[in-house]
Amino acid sequence: MNFIDELTWRGMIHQMMPGTKEQLDKEMTTAYLGIDPTADSLHIGHLVGVMMLKHFQRAGHKPIALVGGATGMIGDPSMKSQERKLLDEETLRHNQEAIKKQLAKFLDFDSKEPNAAEMVNNYDWMKNFSFLDFIRDVGKHITVNYMMAKDSVKKRLSGESQQGMSFTEFSYQLVQGYDFLTLYRDKNCRLQLGGSDQWGNITTGTELIRRTLGGEAYALTCPLITKADGGKFGKTESGNVWLDPRYTSPYKFYQFWLNVSDADAEKYIKIFTELTEDEIRALVEEQQADPGRRPLQKRLAKEITTMVHSAEDYEAAVEASQILFSNNTADALHKLDEETLLQVMEGVPQHEVSLAEIQSGELKLVDLLTDKAPVFPSKGEMRKMTQQGGVSINKEKVTDPYSTISESNLLAGKYILAQRGKKNYFLLIAK
Fold first, then answer.
1. Is 62 a catalytic residue?
2. CB within 8 A of 25, min separation 6: which ones?
3. What distance, in Å, lies between the first and last C-alpha atoms of the chain?
4. Is 80 an active-site residue?
């Protein structure tokens, strides 16, 4: 597999320095990508860069994931209108370990081959570097004119931001440039990968390598991912879509990909999966022939949920997704944990009912669904629809409107799912 060719057809190249392809064709090359450790989980915005590293390793090259412990203490000004919170070392180390576990699902850190993935933290070489040494050994090689010409600096100084730019942030590109110089010198790292907003910082590194060591280094960036409607990729109403199930459950993660538009699905399946060009072309044709079946979204959601979580989590997410739309899901409904149950029922009308009355074992269904919760406007209508087979409790058909309800009917110890007709659901919460 040729790395540049692979990224080209996947639409993952924005800019590339001359000579990059020739370097990769010539020999196994080491490349690094910086990851900001401001949280103890990656989110899907990080995945483009992670997939670049994955393809890089698949192509026989050596990937390095650099956790920006030092740069995370400063905050990158690129595409930001204000400074970020600074983190302490203990938090950074915790975040680094959590991120490495997630990256291990994409990269092979344990391989005996020379292209085994590595993780480094720039805090390790920056923590004992004095300010005077830094401005003497690094700062003297890069002019202020050169630094001011970078887009990330110009935008912040042009009045788009009311806050201007601190010296701390202004120096960021020097610190990132020194990372590249360090990895070039210590690990023969010739290439830095990143998002298109990183081009200025990356080329500062190649310039620093050229001016200090007379070396040749390269840069390659991917486009920033956008949505077809112009909205921000990876953001939902509840915030970021995280890779850690503590922050975004596998069910919600799966749902995110399942619900992307057709245009986005066609773009994302190239970027976020390892499917071949032929496999994707076949899926696109299938989608065009019958858009209602949504094969692109289904396959995208399957591939990425399995890669980030597991095949079991994917199967559980599919099963949970079908609960409202399928008749044979009573068992699946009882297996759901409370968090997933509430996510599946998001948007379903909710009504509180008395737990004590349910526990008594004497509450009749017809009373529960009329007097206690407004599922039906009258008992006559509830009886009539029951006779027609249109009433279900927890996805099981009700045959007798006067049957009693008890604690054994509660899902996750406190919920009852009532269904009126084919599409009207009500979640009763026993308190």
1. no
2. 2
3. 59
4. yes
